[in-house]
C-alpha cells in the first residue's frame, strides 16, 4: 500500500491538461532513471522490439488480434437488429428486439432511469468527497490524517461480498432498504480508494505557491479550493468521474444484494433477469439489445475520454 | 511502490524523490480544524460504510443470524464449523484456486505480449491499443451477458458449428471453465496491457542499448532486462489479478450459474448462496466472508513477499 508520496512537484506544467490529443502513453518518459539525469525528450524503444524485420506476418497478426477483441462487440450489435435464431424478432431486420426489451416488465425506461440516477449520484458523491478529501490530505496536517488515508486505501483489501452482506443489514436498519440512494452510497465508498489517491496526487502536483499567494491575498481555504485549485485539478476530476461512472453503471453485485424490488432494479440486473422470463425460454435477441444499451454509453464515454481513462493507470492509483 | 512507475504528462509527477515525511512546513500546519472539516465527508464514508460493516460482519460471524430473523445471539464456533462443513466448501475453494491460477497466468502472459506489441506510439499501434482496451469499458456483467449469447447453442455465431460437430461451450465442467476464462481474458487483457505498458515505459532505454551493444539476443534481452526491471509491475498486476480472480462472482453467476453439476461454484458465489439463496444464514455467510478476508490478506502478503518487494511503510 502506498503511503509515501512525493510532497509536491514544482513542475508548473503538472496538473495542466496536455494539449495534444494523442493517448497519454505517448507522453515523454518522466522517470528519473538510476544514474541517468531526468529524461525529457520523446523516447522510443529500441528497434529490436519493434518487429520491423517481418512486416507482413506482423500486420496479419495484429489485425487479427484487433479483430478478435472487436468481433464479439460487432457481432452483438449486428445480430441485435437481425432476424437470427433465438429471438422473437421474426419480421426481418429491424428494431424488434429493442421493442421487446422496451416492454420488458416495468419497461426498460424505468431501469434506464434507475441506472442513470445511481450512476450520476455516485459520480457526484465521489467527486465531492474525493475533491474535499484530496484537498485535505494534500494541503493540511491534522491529527489522524495518515490513519484516515490508510483506512481509505484499506477498502481495496476487503472483498466486495464481505462488506455487502453487513451493508445490506445496516442499510435496512436505517430505512435505506431497496434504496437506490443506498446503492449509490455503497458504490461511492468502493470508489474512494482510487478516487482519493487520484485527487491527492492531483492536488500535490499543483505548486503550493499558487494557493499560498491566494491565501496571502486573504482568500479563505474554501475560496482557494474553488477558484484556484479546482481548475488546476480538473483533469484528475474528469478521471475520477469517468471511473466512478463506469463502475456504477456496470455494477451488478451491489444492486443484486441491496435491491429486491423489481421496479428499483438497475439495468444490468434487469437484463440479466430478462433471460428465461418467458416460460424459461431465453430471448437471446432482447438480451443482445440489452447488452448494446448497457455497453454503448460506456464505449462512447471511453472513446471520448480515453486520455483521461489512461491517466487513471499512469497515476499509480491502482497500487493500493 | 509509488516511486516505481512513470507519470503521465498531465498526471502529477513523482520525480523519483526519496519518500517524504508529511509536510511540516509553517504553512502546512495552517489549520488542523479546516483540514478536518474538508476530510470529514471522507471520514464519515470510511467509518459508516466501511468500518461499521467490517465490525458487523465480525459480529455476524459470531452470531446466529438468519436473513429475516436478525441477531439471535452468540453462536461462535458453530458458524465457522458450518461454513467449513458446507458440502460445497472444499469444491468451491479448489475450483476458485484453479480458476485463479489459470486466469492469472494466461491473462498476464497475454497482456505482457500485447503491451510489447503496441509499445511504440505509431498511429496503427494506437489503434490496436484502443481495440484491445474497448472491452475494458464494458462492465463484467455486460461482458458476461454478451458471451452468454455468443456461447449459446441456439443464437450464437457458432450455433451451426456446435450442432454439426456436437460440442457445447458451457455444457461440460471443463468447457464452462475455459469459456469463462476466455471471457475474462477478453474483458481484462487491455486493462492489464495498459498497466504493463506503464511499467515498460519505466525501463530506461540506456539499459536496452547496453544489452544491444553487448550483443544480447532478443530473448536474452527479454529475460535478463525486461522481466527483472518489470518486477514491480509484475508484482502489482499479479496481486490485482489474483485478488480479482479469487473474488470472482458475476462471470459465473451469469454465465454458468455454478453449473454444470455445481462444478463452477466460486467461494463468493457460495457466500452469496448461503446468505440469500435457500439457506439464508447470514451468520455462516459472515463466517465464510471472514475466512475469505483473512485468506486474501495472507495470500497478498505472501505474494508481495515472494516478489521481494521492499517493505512499504
Automatic annotation (TrEMBL), chain A:
InterPro entries for the chain: MetI-like, MetI-like_sf
Positions of region (Disordered): 1-21
Membrane-related topology note: Multi-pass membrane protein
Principal cellular location given in the protein's record: membrane
Keyword field contains Glycoprotein: no
Keywords: Cell membrane, Membrane, Transmembrane, Transmembrane helix, Transport
Family to which the UniProt record says this protein belongs: Belongs to the binding-protein-dependent transport system permease family.
Name of the protein in its database record: Carbohydrate ABC transporter permease
Native species: Agromyces allii
From TrEMBL, chain B:
Coiled-coil zones: none
Membrane as UniProt keyword: yes
Subcellular location(s) of the protein: Cell membrane
Family of this protein: Belongs to the binding-protein-dependent transport system permease family.
Primary location: membrane
Full protein name: Sugar ABC transporter permease
TM helices/strands, residue ranges: 33-58, 99-118, 130-155, 175-195, 233-254, 282-302
Pfam (any one): BPD_transp_1
Region (Disordered): 1-27
Biased composition (Low complexity): 1-20
Domain of life (superkingdom): Bacteria
Keywords recorded for this protein, A-Z: Cell membrane, Membrane, Transmembrane, Transmembrane helix, Transport
Membrane topology: Multi-pass membrane protein
Organism: Agromyces allii
The ABC transmembrane type-1 domain, residue ranges: 93-303
Keyword hit for Cytoplasm: no
